[in-house]
Amino acid sequence: MTTFLLLLIILCVVLTVYAYGLKSYYRENECSREVHTISTDDGWHISLYRYYDPNRHGEPVLLCHGLSANRFSLLYPRGSSLTDHLVNKGYDCWIVDLRGSRSSQPPQGVSRYSSEFDDYLRYDLPAALNHILDTTQSSQLHWVGHSMGGMLLYAYELMHGREGIASATTIGSPPGFEGVRMRHHPLILNLMLWAPFIAEIGLRMSSPLISSLKLSLSYAPINWKNMPEGIRFYNIMELPPPRVINALNDWSVTDTWWVDENRVDVLTGLKALNTPLFVIGGNLDKVAPPVNMEYFHKWLPTPDKRILILSRENGTKEDYNHVDLIFSPNAGTEVFEPISEWIAEHANRDVLKEPDEVQLEALKMSRVAIETLESTPESAAPVENSLRSVMPVDESIQDEQWSRALEDAASVLTGLTATKSKANPTVKPKQKSVRKQKSAKKKTVKTAKKPPSKAKAKKKASTKKKATSVSKSKVKKPVKKKASPKKKASAKKKSAPKKKATEKGK
Predict the structure, then answer these.
(1) How far apart are the C-alpha atoms of 420 and 435, rounded to whole Å?
(2) 32-345: CATH homologous superfamily?
């Protein structure tokens, strides 16, 4: 008995050292430019990771990971990932870590493993979309989802509509479960349900074996011939919430798909999707079989759609399965480039077009012209200076005016016209500038109505005997002095408030 306890203690120590060793070895430095922690309506805190080129101001793109994954699935391989590709194209990329991931924080008393599929749709994704659009001051964004991240798009549109979504791309996202069986061993499912913390530790500790033994799971099949070396599954993998796993298992067995507490039938609603949709699949994928993807694409009601099945028969260097769709060494040209082209075709504002040499020269000349105007002596513009002392200058409006002047100067000098967005000509103005304009108007009105001080009025009355009642100022005149007939005549011409002030002086 003593020997058994000793061996058990030694085993626990070894496993603990191994776990901490893995954590230290696979530790990743945060490479995002910004991390936004947002609150959902039910009290959870989830994270949005922002990646962008500060010298370019592209449209926002929401990237959503799949089941049993997190943001790292969209960041590997480093330097050539889907996120890297889109950032290099100038897009403003936001990766959402859904609830249940290590970065999420549940409310007090709620387990991190208690999430359901509906929770993503009701709380996480609406909060993420609203935050991205508010932060970027954009009217729309582009949605790119891998596996379950694309399934969430289908269900999201049926629950909330397509408002705020300019285009969508789904990668290996099953449009239903016909012919799909997601098998999980009952022992593993029970362990996930009753001891999720232990199940998560076991998953993380065994993750290095996935690459070395080239394992493939039923819900995450991989073509290892199409995978690069060194993918860190330790960082990518998350314990899938048990209730989400159970829901997917039930849907695959019964060939149904209900969300929003069984009020929305997604399978029936798929034929009503209107978002411009780019569907990508692999010819070896058993989770999203090509037959199902092609049938789904055929029956989409929107004419703005596209499908790409990746296979050697269709011109790719390797056949594609489910996981390698986003990790393949050839994904940059075979997967990511078509995605960036699709997004560019559905741009809702013309921010990604870089100026050509003629436009750059015109802008340079216009800046010189503006600098010349700014260096003009103040005496040359007395009217403008007099206005500055009366009206408060709003900096945002002034910047906008200078921007328009610059574009007008460029068009005059070169004959070019400023490019405007064709995809969405009715882009809403920024709310901030509107509020500033209103505040500027209020300040102007307030300045105009402000009466002169009593001290100045008294001084003026003492130096000038002809002084009449000063506008709205309640100036007390010397006692026992009657107003002259001329003053009475002038007082009659005054407004009612001024007349009262005159009578008070009498």
Answers:
(1) 24
(2) Alpha/Beta hydrolase fold, catalytic domain (3.40.50.1820)
